Structure formats: structure tokens, C-alpha cells
Amino acid sequence: GALRALCSEVARRMAKSAPSRPVAIFALGPTGVGKTRSAQELADAMRDLEGDGATSFLRLDMNEYQEEYRISQLLGAPQGYIGHGSGSQLLEVLQREGRAIVLFDEIDKAHPAILKVLMNAMDAGRISSAGEIEGSREVDCRGAIFIFTSNHDATEVIGDADALTTDVYEHRFEVDDIARKRLLEARVAPEIIGRLSRFLLFLPLDEQTRAAIVTLAVQESAEEYGLDVTYIEPSVIIEVMRVATDGGFGARPIRYLVDDLLGRAFVAAVEDDLNGKSVRVCGPPFSLEVKVSPTEGEDE
Q1: What percent of the chain has pLDDT over 70?
Q2: Which residues does the UniProt record annotate as the domain AAA+ ATPase (predicted)?
């Protein structure tokens, strides 16, 4: 549901030749369910469609912007202040690329002064800079996509949505109303809530999704060792899922667990000079090996 909604919003934006303001999307859900990863994958997909350099991606961890003085990192420091002329992380990305995707991770942690700046951007499609950037003090952000994430109050929103339907995508307006109400109760600035075009509700991971995440984590972990995994025995995935109890942390701990469980086998494969070769990950659990994949025509 959340990914379909995200694709729908982005497709409409890409079809507009003269947008008046940036897309502003709020992603709600427990930790580790794919909110941040979805934004990153969206940027990759848009670059594939439009060509390298057409869409830039910037992730801002709003835990780092809890103090008012940190606003200068976003907009640049005024003349006469420390940091003047050193640039602005946010504005330089927006100035350089018209279709930038900016992820404001855990926006509820940001200082209210930073929220006020973003409100103007979502209204007017422009952000004023403390100094000139390429001869102008205003940066056009009408072609940008702003994605805000928060773990706050996700349980209550999910509970209310479950009472409506199992397909939250088909009931977007009801879900939007629930999200706005719960965020207001959580004292998120109403000025921000009123400027959001869509709420994405990321639900807790089911077993099928967790299995797919384990598979991806094994492949990505192997790549760090220079190994190309082409097959993973089901027993490996089952054992990782057994050990990786959710505990309320979603998929995030799975990546670390996979490296712990399979790291010794990957090291052994590197020592056996299997780098760059197609390999398979085999069980039984906790005695994992990495073997060369069967050649074409050989029985599995």
C-alpha cells in the first residue's frame, strides 16, 4: 500500500511540466520497516529513468538539527557569522538539481525554527538563503520531492487504519485523516501537517517480507566480501529468521545478524579465492558454507 501510494504521487509529479510547489509526503510506521530505504530506492529508480545526474538524493537526520543554530547548516550562515561562505547542504542540492529527493528523517526531532523554513518551501516552492547561491538568494524547490519520516505514534495510526480495512491504499483519505489527527495529538506542528499532500503508512513486516529482506541482506553482505551469491538454501533463510526475532526493531538488525552468522563462511570463501565467482550459500544452520554454484546442466 505505501509503495503504491508513493509511486502514484511521484508519477503525477513527473507528469507535471510546471509544478507550483514540491511534493510533501509523510511516511509513518515502526522502525525498520523500509521508510528510509524506500526513499533511497526511489532516487535510484528515477535516475535509471532519467539518466545519471537527473535526480539527486539527500538524507538529513533531523536528530542532528534539534538546536536552533543548526539551521545555518541547511540555509548557510549570514555574512559576518561563523560558517559564512562554507555552503549549505540542503540548498546546494536543490540549486544543482531541479528534481531532488530530500529525506527528512525523524522530522519530529527537528527544532521548530527549521520547520518554519520548510513550511515556506512547501507553500511557495522557494527557500531563501542566508547568502547568495549562483547569484540569487532564493532557491527554487518546486520540482523537489520532500519525504518526512517519523516513528512517533505509529502504533495508534496503524491500529486505527486496521479497523478500517486491510488495504490502506484504497482508503487513502481515511488514512490521511487518521494520521493528521494522531500527529496533532502528538503535538507535531499543525502548520506542517496541513501542508502535507500524502501520508504513507508502512505496516509491520509479515513473514514473507522478512524472508525477502533476509535474502537481500545475505546477497548484500556477500558483496562486501567480493562474493556473488546466486543461490541461498531455504534452510539458511529459515534459520536467520528464527534467530532474528523482531523485537520491535523491524528489518534493521537483520543486516548485522547476517554478517555475524555468515561472516566466517564468507571469510573462508575469500581465502579459497572465490571472489568474483558465482557462489551459493548452504546450510545446515550455524555450519554455513559457501560453495561454487553448479555449472549449467549439472543437477542441483
Answers
A1: 76
A2: 21-174
Q: How far apart are CA 160 and CA 182, in angstroms?
A: 10
Does a structural domain hold residue 138?
A: yes
Q: How far apart are CA 125 and CA 140, in angstroms?
A: 6
Give residue 286's pLDDT: 55
Beta bridge partners of 11: none
Are 5 and 198 within 8 A, CB to CB? Answer: yes
Helix (H) or strand (E) holding 128: strand 126-133
- Alpha-carbon distance 52 to 90, whole Å? 20
- Are residues 174 and 219 located together in one domain of the fold? no
Residue 193 backbone phi and psi in degrees, to 5: -60, -40
Q: Is 140 helix (H, G, I), strand (E, B) or coil?
A: strand
Same domain, 227 and 167: no
Instruction: State how far the Cα of 13 lies from the Cα of 295, in Å rounded to an integer.
Output: 47
**82-101 residue pLDDT tens:** 455 555 778 878 877 667 89
On whether both 91 and 118 belong to a single domain, the answer is yes
Q: How many residues does the chain have?
A: 300
Residue 79 and residue 146 in one domain: yes
CA distance 27 to 237: 29
